[in-house]
Amino acid sequence: MKVVNNSTIDVIVDIFKRYGEERYAKRIAGRVVQARQEEPIITTTQLAEIVKQAVPRKTSKIHPATRVFQALRIHVNAELENLVSGLEVAISLLKQGGCLCVITFHSLEDRIVKHCFQRCARPCICPPKTPICICEHKPSVELITKRPVLPSETEIQNNPRARSAKLRAARKL
Predict the structure, then answer these.
(1) Half-sphere exposure of 97 (CA within 13 A, CB side)
(2) Distance, first Cα to last Cα, the chain
(3) Which tens digits make up the pLDDT trace of 3-56?
């Protein structure tokens, strides 16, 4: 809860927007700063209630604080930065013909995996306006899945957490 209790409102807004893609980031951050002036926020229940009060009522099955907790977790654990370095290491450790499969659960992760796989599969990484390839880049993987594999309706019914899962795969060349 250090981030929530000690960060400026601008930092909190940035975290909620960047990592949680929260559309009410400013409103929620304002309520967080207001609440912590009265007393420190020490439990997740307190934070969830603050978020719930800040966000307009919806009929969604997902709790309004879900994206806020996601954003805080991603920020504190530096998950996106670790994902990038982890993908690069994983690809480098694969033997020829080895496959790397990655399941993501939100768009930020999926975008990183997609771009990493595409970059590694591209034969040239020169800037688009360069008339002749000068990079001498060789693709290190081939894409097994051009588009992500999504769970079926049956799988989602059996496991509701699978609703946002996306699988991408690449094979080492």
Answers:
(1) 0
(2) 45
(3) 999 999 999 999 999 999 998 999 999 999 999 999 999 999 999 999 999 988
- Residue 76 makes CB contacts below 8 A (sequence gap 6+) with 3
Task: State which H helix or E strand residue 101 sits in.
Answer: strand 99-104
Give the pLDDT confidence of 121-131 residue by residue, as tens digits. Answer: 988 888 888 88
In degrees rounded to 5, what are phi and psi of residue 98? Answer: -70, 150
Report angle CA 92, 95, 99 to the nearest 5 degrees. Answer: 85
168 in Cβ contact with 148 (< 8 Å): yes
CA distance 146 to 41: 44
Instruction: Give the tokens for residue 139.
Output: 């693709």
Q: Which amino acid is at 105?
A: F
pLDDT in the model for residue 59 = 62
Query: What's the pTM?
Result: 0.80
What gap in Å lies between CA 1 and CA 45, rounded to an integer? Answer: 12
Inter-residue contact 101 to 167 (CB < 8 Å)? yes
Q: What values do phi and psi take at 100, rounded to 5?
A: -120, 120
Query: Taking the CB of residue 66, how many other CB atoms lie within 10 A of it?
Result: 14
Contact 3, 32 (CB under 8 A): no
